Amino acid sequence: MLYVTKLNMEEISLITGASGCIGSSTSKYFAKKGMVVLITDINDESGQKLEREIISSGGKAKYYHMDVCSKKEVRDVLDDITEEYGRINHTICIAGGALGENNLPFEEIPEEIKRKTFELNYFGVCSVIENAVHLMEGLENASIVVTGSGNADQAIGNPYYSSSKGALKSLVKYLSSQYGQRGIRVNMIVPGTVQSERTKKMYKNSDVFKELKEKITYGNDFIPPEDIADGIYFLTQNKSANGCILVLDRGQSSGKHKV
Predict the structure, then answer these.
(1) Is 159 helix (H, G, I), strand (E, B) or coil?
(2) What superfamily in CATH does domain 4-192+226-245 come from?
(3) For 83, phi and psi rounded to 5 degrees?
């Protein structure tokens, strides 16, 4: 067990969706920067493996099973963190994703998919922030980073995923004002298409992913997850970043110049 008295000089970061591509890269990156990383996910096997990897590399980490869609699980985990650590310097909300088929007409998307998508991508983030903020107040350089998506600004993929990320973008602007005045900065990272086993498979089978790759204006591949982790770390450390929407997509959102 890590006691608060031993952690006075170390920043503590809570990371949701930590066992995924961006989440695991961010967890490892933060641990290498000397942070204590509290990793949460619903995939216990991957989460526990990540915890072991960080510890074996000399970092400090603890895994918690937490489904952001369960208000009870979020409260219980944050209660445990309160008892053991007493504070959180940074809350990093990465858990999320698209649910259901992307190619269904809007009026045919099942009600269950609509609601679950918002529960995961929007209300799950709200639940984590609501329960974490009391552990952040009064700390120097406390921050919240929310993961957005370029889909929020274009007609790509599942409309409920895109609109849930658009709602998060508005929320970040609101919270950056309210929480900023209480000493907690709130920002959003917007990744482009990230290199992963999933995107490799999608690239082979999806014309959309081929079009996305064609839009890249710097380099010839999708974004390494370590670049996103570096961007998230920047947002936690730069004290002038509040209400910032940081897009890291190798120019995908701009597209290639045509004459």
Answers:
(1) helix
(2) NAD(P)-binding Rossmann-like Domain (3.40.50.720)
(3) -70, -40
Q: Are 169 and 152 in contact, with CB atoms under 8 Å apart?
A: yes
Beta-sheet strands, E only, within 99-149 = 142-147
Q: How many CB atoms lie within 10 A of CB 82?
A: 15
Do residues 256 and 217 lie in contact, with contact meaning Cβ atoms separated by under 8 Å?
yes
Each residue's pLDDT expressed in tens, for the chain with a length of 259 residues: 444 444 567 999 999 999 999 999 999 999 999 999 999 999 999 999 999 999 999 999 999 999 999 999 999 999 999 999 999 999 999 999 888 766 788 888 899 999 999 999 999 999 999 999 999 999 999 999 999 988 777 777 788 999 999 999 999 999 999 999 999 999 999 998 776 666 555 545 566 666 676 677 677 777 889 999 999 999 999 999 999 999 998 767 777 666 6
H/E segment holding residue 228: helix 225-237
Domain ranges of the chain: 4-192+226-245
Cα separation, 159 vs 117, whole angstroms: 10
User: Do residues 143 and 185 touch, judged by C-beta distance below 8 A?
Assistant: yes
Sequence-ordered list of residues with C-beta below 8 angstroms from that of 145, at least 6 positions apart, any chain: 90, 91, 92, 93, 186, 187, 188, 189, 232, 235, 236
Instruction: Report the half-sphere exposure of 99 (CA within 13 A, side-chain side).
Output: 18
Single-letter residue type at 232: I
What is the side-by-side strand order in the sheet with 60-65? 60-65, 36-41, 12-16, 90-93, 142-147, 184-191, 245-248
